[in-house]
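Extended Data, panel c. Modelled sequence:
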Amino acid sequence: MTKDVEMAARNGGNGAVAGEAYYPPPPAQGGDADVDDDGKQRRTGTVWTASAHIITAVIGSGVLSLAWATAQLGWVVGPITLMLFAAITYYTSGLLADCYRAGDPLTGKRNYTYMDAVASYLSRWQVWACGVFQYVNLVGTAIGYTITASISAAAINKANCFHKNGRAADCGVYDSMYMVVFGVVQIFFSQVPNFHDLWWLSILAAVMSFTYASIAVGLSLAQTISGPTGKATLTGTEVGVDVDSAQKIWLAFQALGDIAFAYSYSMILIEIQDTVRSPPAENKTMKKATLVGVSTTTAFYMLCGCLGYAAFGNGAKGNILTGFGFYEPYWLIDFANVCIVVHLVGAYQVFCQPIFAAVETFAAATWPNAGFITREHRVAAGNGKRLGFNLNLFRLTWRTAFVMVSTLLAILMPFFNDILGFLGAIGFWPLTVYFPVEMYIRQRGIPRYTTR
């Protein structure tokens, strides 16, 4: 897989926008207002659309586990860890944004994907390593979001059942059916050919993430004020009371993985930056968007983690809105879970678009004359030619297959906290810290062992 990914990154580097990967870009014309300096369709993204993409990517299923994560670490280590991860993410995202263009920040060659940036600055084996970490993480995120969306959809059914029949009722449901429905919805959305055409979905998803995070904060605050509340301590879950010593160590590391996952979006930062218009320079816009996105999400994370821990103490559930620490008002819990499902529909696409682009770019470069791969078929809707869409058979087949496989894997691995912790553990350090720092050092020519 990594060899394919690297070849896709090196073949012109136009994988960030999947639908445009089928044709080599025409030479830019000075008087053409519809194209950018690289001959591609003019980018129209702003600070606000980039911020929406970031918030959509960052505030995901990770926010729901932060009360549990804080419970494993306690009042001291929990909030400090949240702030530390936020600071690291913001700092290294700024370094990565500077690597979007090679050389001059206004006129240098664009790197369309994270892999393009790594290939521009680092060695061949580092490109391979990046491919493994990035695409394993992206595929894992797709699986994790499928699990989370299905759990939230099932929680709606459970909340209504508990409200009707009482809290002692048997209200168990199978999550698999909801995963299949989520997969079917994603099959349709995955046919959108261009990443920048999803701006409206990201804005809707960002609004949904604000909504359900606010509901979680509000319910936790109400529980903290009205009681009863769980027992909270400076060090979190207590050895000999809540867990044994081995469990304490394991769950503390899993909590760190959950927090790392909650902040992981660097693997798609370059793809988001490639939707931003210029001037001003894309790195300046992206740094502003990162400040808005990371500061906003950190505020919600602190509120969700700390208030959730204050409300439920060391017994905080792994998913604050589906673990049924809250039962009433059931209609508000239903609405919050609907918002989660809608948000994850958009977030799934934000994370999967780089996967789609890499595979389609590689296929187009390898078989440029294959009509099955390169030809776009115009499908008209109604009598007018204006209404309709472009259908590519390879895109239809490959993206449908990917969604089906990720849905099947989600059905086979329905473990919420474990999946999040695993993804955070394998992805945060290499993708958010190591590669951005290494690329920035190479770009600026910073000598070893110097103060800078």
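The chain has 14 helices and four strands. This feature is highlighted in the accompanying rendering.
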